[in-house]
Task: structure prediction
Amino acid sequence: PQMSGNEMIWHRTEPGEMTTQDLVAFSHWQSKWLPDGFTLVAHQNRLRANNGAHVEQRVYSDGLSSVSVFIEKMLAQHNHFHGGSHMGAVNAFGSVIHSHFVTVVGEVPAVTVEKIGAAIEYAGP
Result:
């Protein structure tokens, strides 16, 4: 509610339309494993208003379920959760990779968010 939307860059595609070359142009991160049928369906970069950190969000879906991956550069030491958590049917997994907080959230089994989180790799310059 505090943002007009001009601060964000939105990239929208239909499922399966984003190519590997498109993804490399957006990000220095890659997922080495996704569940069968899951593809990248949305990608956005934005700044967190309260600390100015750059946050990348990727949404993967198989058309029925979706999983969001959030990647945020660590600007200061704070308590980012590590490991698994859940609320109802939503599972989450958090870790620190290459000085970034990586959080995976979705209405998929806990083992799935953990496997996706463990498969995120920094492939930057």
